[in-house]
Write a structure and sequence with these properties.
This protein is of the alpha/beta class. The protein contains 21 helices and 22 strands. The structure holds ligand C2E and magnesium ion (2 copies).
């Protein structure tokens, strides 16, 4: 098929189309019944209400075509020809002898197009955004009368578009919270309903297909109900103007703490809701709630006032007990009430009341003990890249646990339970051994980083264990990096210093992980002989809008360089993060931009020239 030329006003035409907010919207009975009238009046088996997007034709309504035809490439559509001459009707009496169409699969195969007529549909400014099309399976002509009728119908189609645009604008007005620009309770009701319906079909599909997205559970939907503790008092004491300014900032912090695909809405004065669509890992909604809490650790500063706010968060999960919008909302409110009752700044999930929580923790602890016995953890590898050399630097080994009869559990969840049960050192030992064994089997000398929990510096004999593991696995110690967090240093300062020095004496490198996240003192850098410091991933996220994040990142890089310590940025997701870090002279980087943690070490995506260690490396 010969593709059509682009209309001379294509850019504006596409803008006009987008402003209609109609692409990919669900079926609309108004459009469907209009099209049924068109097909019947013009006596054709097939009719479509078609819009021409940048790359595709998309049917808002169809008569006589199965759903798989809803969208097809623009290059092979006749409609793209129709919009070039908006005042004329394009008629093809027999597609088999039409130069544009005869080679089209729609002619040689279903729906076996022979006769075609199309007339442009204009928006209110006169842009030809699509066409009204009629199609028949046998060749025929279009009478003058029918030609006039098709043109008239296409004008009617234009007015349908106007009505659609108007009702969209009205809905937006009704559904937006004027203060924060977020969706309001009306929007929430509609979005919640759609989300529950989608969760239902997604779960049904994954059960029927017997397949679940790799590493994820088909938990279709989570609803987080968020309330600012004591907000009424803020309004009472400081006035509504001040309260409004705080609310805007609260909305901004919430938005930064959630995933791009999560929906944030404002339901009441101090009440927000977050809808997370699955699939996600067990514990991921709770991890989001924790991330939100972390975003409120920094006090609000406004009008010379410093204000610390706490959030109560209730988490409800779509499931047997909550499979309708009303039930899910009730569950979220119940969890929020539980959280409030427990005091300010608490998170509760409905899945488990407090007692249930304890019981399920105990069971998880038991399963963790078994996993330690059987080395039942796996390792996901995430590349760390050298920004100067533009090559792979090393891999970080991240623990993963596929809990028997439950599926994958988020590290933040099982680590919390393991910490409570004093199991972290045992888990670290398993991961250390597995990671070193795997690295020793690689055909090159790429480095490997292993995370070590703070307990070691109170009760463990880390240097001895590491030395034993080096002997047992025959890994060259210079390839191993031990990652510790600041929490390890404060428990017993001199003990930590002694252990770190002993590790370095064996030839192992030491990395300070998550720098700047919690306690952050630049003085640690001068007092401990670190080889690498890793800037916590939250920095990357805040580089754009937080001058403190920029200042700390710059200071850490500068001080690191003065002390001969390499600086690694974590959580690098966007190109502009990378550009900023390169400008600042950051040495190393890790994040989704280069590669997600994966069961087999992958060569970092952005560095084509990176040496291809991954290809020769076997999975752990
Ligand atoms: P970490 O050591 O700071 O590891 C980096 C975490 O950030 C990993 O999460 C990784 O998946 C995630 N990440 C990496 N790149 C990006 C990115 O671009 N964007 C975002 N949003 N996240 C990114 P993960 O695997 O969930 O691990 C969480 C934490 O659990 C680790 O943080 C580490 O402190 C701990 N951990 C993992 N494995 C072990 C272990 O074997 N022993 C100990 N003690 N702790 C471990
Ligand atoms: Mg780490
Ligand atoms: Mg980290």
């Amino acid at each position: 098929m010969q593709p059509a030329y682009l209309p001379f006003n294509e850019t504006q035409r596409l803008e006009a189309l987008l402003e209609l907010h109609i692409l990919d919207t669900p079926a609309d009975p108004q459009f469907d019944s209009f099209l049924a009238v068109v097909a019947e009046s013009l006596n054709v088996p097939i009719a479509t209400f078609t819009l021409i997007d940048e790359e595709r034709q998309w049917h808002k309504a169809m008569v006589g075509l199965p759903a798989r035809f809803q969208e097809s490439p623009r290059a092979s559509s006749l409609c793209a020809h129709v919009i070039l001459a908006p005042d004329e009707t394009l008629v093809v009496e027999d597609a088999r002898s039409d130069a544009r169409m005869k080679a089209s699969p729609l002619v040689s195969g279903p729906p076996f197009i022979r006769f075609y007529a199309g007339h442009a549909i204009l928006d209110e400014s006169g842009f030809a955004v699509g066409a009204l099309e009629i199609i028949d399976h046998s060749p025929r002509t279009l009478s003058d009368e029918d030609r006039t009728m098709l043109a008239r119908f296409s004008r009617h189609a234009s007015s349908l578009l106007r009505v659609h645009k108007l009702s969209y604008a009205l809905r937006m007005q009704r559904e937006v919270d004027g203060l924060t620009g977020l969706g309001n309770r009306l929007a929430f009701n509609r979005i919640l309903e759609d989300a529950v319906a989608r969760a239902k079909t997604d779960i049904a599909a994954s059960l029927v297909g017997g397949k679940v997205v790799e590493g994820k559970l088909p938990e279709g939907l989570a609803l987080l109900s968020v309330d600012i503790d004591g907000f009424k008092k803020v309004n009472d004491v400081h006035g509504h103007g001040f309260g409004d300014a705080i609310l805007k900032d609260v909305a901004r912090r919430l938005r930064n703490a959630i995933r791009g695909s999560d929906r944030l809405l404002r339901l009441g004065s101090a009440e927000f809701a977050i809808l997370m669509a699955g699939p996600f890992l067990v514990g991921e909604p709770e991890a989001t709630a924790q991330r939100i809490h972390a975003a409120f650790v920094t006090p609000f500063e406004m009008d010379d006032l410093t204000l610390q706010l706490n959030l109560s968060i209730g988490v409800a999960l779509y499931g047997e007990q909550a499979d309708t919008p009303v039930m899910l909302l009730q569950q979220a409110h119940r969890a929020l009430a539980d959280a409030k009752q427990a005091g300010p700044g608490q998170i509760r999930t409905t899945r488990d009341g407090a007692a249930g929580n304890l019981r399920s923790d105990r069971r998880m602890e038991e399963d963790l003990r078994n996993a330690i016995e059987t080395e039942g953890f796996s390792i996901y590898w995430q590349p760390i890249v050298d920004l100067r050399r533009e090559e792979l630097h090393s891999y970080e080994a991240l623990a993963r646990w596929n809990r028997p009869d439950h599926g994958p559990v988020a590290p933040s969840t099982f680590i919390q339970v393991a910490e409570r049960g004093d199991l972290m050192m045992a888990i670290d030992k398993v991961i250390l051994r597995k990671a070193c064994r795997a690295a020793a089997s690689w055909t090159d000398t790429t480095g490997v980083s292993v995370n070590i929990s703070p307990e070691w510096f109170l009760a463990g004999h880390l240097p001895d264990i590491v030395a034993d593991t080096m002997r047992e696995t025959s890994l060259d110690p210079s390839r191993l990096r031990i990652e510790i967090t600041e929490g390890s240093l404060i428990r017993d300062f001199s003990r930590a210093l002694k252990d770190i020095e002993a590790l370095k004496a064996i030839g192992v490198q030491v990395t300070l992980d998550d720098f700047g996240f919690g306690l952050s003192s630049l003085s640690y850098l001068t007092e401990f002989p670190f080889d690498i410091i890793k800037l916590d991933g939250s920095f990357a996220r805040h580089l754009r809008d937080n001058s403190r994040a920029i200042a700390v990142a710059q200071a850490a890089i500068e001080l690191g360089h003065k002390l001969g310590i390499k600086v690694c940025a974590e959580g690098v997701e966007e190109l502009w993060h990378l550009e900023f870090l390169e400008q600042q002279g950051c040495d190393l980087a890790q994040g989704y931009l280069f590669g997600r943690p994966s069961p087999i070490p992958q060569v970092p995506g952005r560095w084509g020239k990176a040496k291809s260690a991954g290809s020769t490396i076997a999975a752990a």
